[in-house]
């Protein structure tokens, strides 16, 4: 086909505005729909069914295909031998309409392969031919032979309704002389393809004729072809073509109206923001599109489930489809979190300021101007959903906070800004030590703006799809190819790479330490990638199979050979475990941990997101203050009390992390040690190299700015896990700052901290961080060759891509480690997100489903066989193998058997009678006072019987119950070493004895997220030698869902082994020690 060399340039904004009626043809039924005459009523219903069918489904039709090059006179048929089929369909709805041909072959042992070719109705060329304009419900087949051109991939399209010839009928499984469709089209731009990248070895199980058919089908990918498809007549295909032919001319790109569909006037907004999901236009559009007709006028049907509008996708046609679906899912999640959670905490608060000098026992200049304030945040109103119930629902880390103190007599209104930063503990005497000058403050607190990790993820999606020259990411990058997943299912046929000398030696050294599965996983992780097929490797394994240990050995090898390694995890709890394994493995191999840093949240995360972009640079006045202070400090020295306060502030800002691994690997702790050394050595600090001189200057810069701020006052904010409160640590100082010196000092201070982080990370060999902090500015000086993503199933795809794409220029290999039976990504916008089904699927799970290389670990060395039996059968299909070391005898089985008067064993179910579920008034999270009492008494008695407290872990499904268990067991009973966590926080952890409180006894109140299958898998697989589940033997109810069925099965499993005990619960210990529950502050749920 001929085509102009220079395509017409089209401004699609007016095109889209002109045809909004076509894109927005999904309107509610008119009020008089039931009063329409029969013909109009039929036409209205027909158009609605057509639109619904085209948007949500397609029909594959058996066909045969002819093709010819532009300069050839005759068509030739694509061969289709035995056990081979070709199917044609029209798909895509209004967003990404396309023609599709699929060749399927079946070989020996019933092996199947599919090859897909897609011709989209959009392209970069081919806008020169206008086509007829039809209405949505007009039948274009009435005009036989009319030619339509949609794009350079679909040119000269003719859709003919004819009779099936006798010699053509067998080819498409039709009947001679019956109705059929004959479709012609041509393309000058090659179509998209999927599945063709399989090597010859993958095709050996198919016949010679089948392989020839694939080669013949592959020729359709050539440029400048004309194609003819003959298929039987079917109404669904004609309806889809009717909609297809009525598209605007010229055809806009894919998903054009996700930019402007709901913007008044159809103007473009480029997906920076989206209208609310409850907008009338969106509700109407989605309502008709989802419901179709459903035997009732559409406006009468119940509201749709939005996630079904964009089902979970494994493959994407092109970059635009990926960008839209991932960006929409991300923006909806951001908006829902902001409106449903953060905004609900915005109100006036009154709180007390506790002098830091009293809290820390420090009396020195500047310290008296620091205060701690505990802010008990309560929501105005929160949605009732599993996300809120499961956690304390405090605003997420990274959320910007503004505190406005109203004007008072003689004092103008003051506004302070900061960030929410999670942490677990604060000085234990902060609530009890109340002597001194306690200040009472009132102010309006606003939690707002988006977690910066979401903003970074949005940019990362575009970088992965379209490249970024500044970051060294090419347009056709390896990660993009894997994310689109056009040929992922062919990766498994690629021959494994052979290890080099260093890799072989490393593997040989591990043969007495790891099993064969683990060795294979390490081997996969230490091999450099040569193409997209081995650029990403997956390591899958159930609990206790050694995934973290494998990752530690991979990191050990790469450090030895000089490769930099970035280890990313979905949560800080998971990061604790991999940090512990890193230390353990490196100690076993007689290696130090020098150059290994864990990037925590010291000093308010990243200064580029803490400070607004328009904060001015330090002025001459600021520089004068700085230089004067530095000279004074170097001359007179640093007060030790000031350094003590500096240590306390950094340590207080750390997240809840394991104390040993955190102190040993924490970058913040390392900086503190270097600060101490700089203060001690002063002029004796070695300055023979540029690196030594730079480090000295950076350390003294930070000390000086900190000292300047101690004289002027500063505000910090962070969250704490005490009674669902937010702890606000702040300094109160002179408010008058006409020259803006305070603001500039704050900016300079955070910049100094960031520069120190960047300096040390630039020389590090291994860095550990969470996925949400992997894009922090200090890390941009770190150039990893290897990235390992731990607990990858917990990380959403967009956040995971964000932690990978910025390092693309240096990356040689990516390893994702996880288990799809355990916790998936947390998605809160379940009923408020068109792409929620896609958001629920992690990158790990999607790549595993599409065929990316995978090494599976199946031998578990954690759980005793009595504990693993149920987990293996019900979560892993019986495929989990117990290592011999798990069968070691323990006296705990006799203790538990005697205590509950049941058969000795390792796994028990305690059914607590007459329990009651409570929640705090105005709160959302739950607790069961009777279950708390049983768990506390059991933990106390286990310790009395000789079980070490550090060998016990208690899990609860609810944050409020976890908080009360901590106060009762850790504080009141003084069993400080007992770990008490939510189930979600326990993934990756293990203990000798685990007690699980299910909180909900079932019944009319249901089970909430206790019925979640993935959480149940995590809860039941943490114990090594003893597991006790506290619940109700009737909690499984009669519901048919898998979650309820699994609880019934678990209860029956313990009953059949005589490991089920009926226990009389009591809330006496909770009432005596904590005064809870009470009717004043709590309300009964059951």
UniProtKB/TrEMBL annotation:
GO molecular function, one term: helicase activity
UniProt KW keywords: ATP-binding, Helicase, Hydrolase, Nucleotide-binding
Region forming the signal peptide: none
Keyword ATP-binding carried by entry: yes
Residue span, DNA2/NAM7 helicase-like C-terminal domain: 841-1033
Nucleotide-binding as UniProt keyword: yes
UniProt domain DNA2/NAM7 helicase helicase: residue ranges: 513-829
Domain of life: Eukaryota
Name of the molecule in the record: P-loop containing nucleoside triphosphate hydrolase protein
Species classification: Eukaryota, Fungi, Dikarya, Ascomycota, Pezizomycotina
